[in-house]
Specification:
It is a single chain. This protein is α+β, with helices and mostly antiparallel strands. The protein has two domains: 132 residues, no CATH class; 256 residues, no CATH class. Helix content is 16%, strand content 29%. The strands form four sheets. Strands 1-12-11-10-9-8-13-14-15 form a nine-stranded mixed beta sheet. The chain has a six-stranded antiparallel beta sheet with strand order 6-7-22-21-18-19, with no helix packed on it. Helix 1 crosses helix 5 and helix 2 crosses helix 5. The chain starts with a strand and ends with a strand. The structure holds zinc ion. Zinc ion (ZN) binds next to loops.
């Protein structure tokens, strides 16, 4: 089922459009050797670290040919896809693998392993469908949650239905090896202090964060591209610029109205107009991501969550949801605000390829922001093999085409970085 949003009137504000930041790659990152923050001048392909004097090749994607010399060997780099190396300004906390509940989940729910789906996005969608429509068509009772060994996780969410289902989705997504987080959203209306909880899941294939709304088993796309799921900022940007006219809500259920959402006390959790209210793109005016290493088992009220708030010129200087406080909002050190898209939507699971030219050799340093990182792999003779994060470029003459990927502790591999080139004397 598809829902279109008519352009509701929105006061003033006609500022420009959003940049396509997912194609934006940046090399601004700490020096892999000494940690000094490196800022490559625009178009500069090389930079010597002012701190440790290492000579680096800019680690970004390029079609430009680049020739350099190291250890009396000349190397020519051709077309290359090198993962972004942006370092978010907040500590990215996702050591969820160490949650015993997460580790036991895959064994307890065998359907998780064979979830199917042609693409990663289809799999992420199928997870929501299975979870929301098949496994938990209504909010599970305390007894059932205890039987499924999920009570510890859900114990703090007995009232907030959207939060409850958002928790469940994140939990199962993490057990699959994907990175997901809970997003608290709200509209720009002082009279309406009502918030909503959805999830954002990182998609390695599409290289973006995607919003899923597990309570309604819903997701969003652009009207022009119905198969491409949207991120928080894309939904929000369309609301601000086009009043949500281009956004479509898709549902995993035939008709969400027929889907009975009820609590164990049989109180309807969602009013009849709930869908129209909470699925509307204007809900995405405010956005707060809750991050913690233990957000599945930390009590929600304990305020252990790190709060990452999106703030730009549209909501600058205003109070969150008409002076309501998001969890931890009042704890200064737990709140990070950002107006930089790469902070809010950091590219993950990529391999950044740094090349250092020393007098003796060209040395490759692999870097990644993969949550629950395990190791790097390289494709050689058609086989993926584990490799160290630092190694010497072979001096043997000839062409090379290398592919690297990062693998997390669940065995999930990220997008490949490719390096093509030639070595010649
Ligand atoms: Zn350095």
């Amino acid at each position: 089922m598809v829902m279109n949003f008519p352009g509701a009137p929105h006061p003033k504000r006609t500022r420009g459009s959003y940049p396509g930041y997912f194609t934006l790659l940046t090399a601004d990152a700490p020096c892999p050797l000494c940690g000094n923050f490196l800022r490559f001048p625009q178009w500069a392909e090389r930079l010597a670290c002012p701190e440790c004097q290492s000579a680096w090749i800019r680690p970004v994607s390029s079609n430009r040919r680049l020739v350099f010399r190291a250890g009396r060997v000349n190397f020519g780099l051709g077309r290359r896809w090198v993962g972004p190396v942006w370092r978010p300004k907040y500590p990215f906390q996702h050591a969820l693998f160490h949650e015993p509940e997460v580790r036991s989940l895959t064994s307890r729910h065998s359907w998780l392993k064979r979830i199917g789906g042609r693409s990663l996005w289809r799999q992420q969608l199928k997870l929501m469908q299975r979870l929301r429509c098949d496994i938990f068509p209504t909010r599970a009772s305390t007894a059932e949650l205890k039987r499924l060994d999920l009570w510890t996780i859900c114990r703090t969410n007995t009232h907030w239905f959207c939060t409850h289902f958002a928790y469940l989705y994140v939990l199962f997504a993490v057990a699959k090896g994907w990175t997901a987080r809970i997003l608290n959203i709200g509209r720009d209306n002082p009279q309406d202090t009502h918030g909503h909880m959805v999830c954002e899941v990182w998609n390695d294939e599409l290289q973006k964060w995607i919003v899923v709304d597990p309570l309604y088993a819903a997701w969003f796309s652009c009207r022009a591209k119905p198969d491409e799921p949207l991120s928080y900022m894309e939904i929000r940007a369309d609301w601000l610029v086009h009043r949500g006219r281009n956004v479509r809500a898709h549902f995993c259920v035939e008709d969400w109205r027929k889907n009975i959402f009820c609590s164990e006390r049989s109180i309807p959790a969602v009013e009849h107009n709930g869908g129209e209210r909470e699925l509307h793109p204007d809900m995405y005016f405010w956005g707060v991501a809750y991050l913690t290493n233990r957000f599945l088992t930390d009590a929600y009220a304990d305020r252990h969550h790190l709060v990452l708030m999106w703030r730009d010129s549209w909501n600058d200087g205003r109070l969150w949801l008409h002076q309501n406080k998001p969890v931890s909002y009042h704890l200064e050190r737990r709140l990070v605000t950002t107006g930089h898209p790469m902070d809010f939507h950091p590219p993950l699971n990529n391999v950044a390829i740094w090349i250092r030219c020393s007098a003796k050799a060209a040395i490759v340093h692999l870097k990644t922001l993969t949550p629950n990182f395990s190791h790097f792999e390289m494709k050689r003779m058609g086989q993926w093999r584990r490799i160290p994060a630092e190694f010497v470029l072979p001096r043997k003459k000839g062409r090379f085409c290398w592919q690297f990927c990062s693998v997390n502790q669940f065995g999930g591999a990220g997008k490949r970085s490719v390096l093509k080139g030639t070595s010649f004397s």
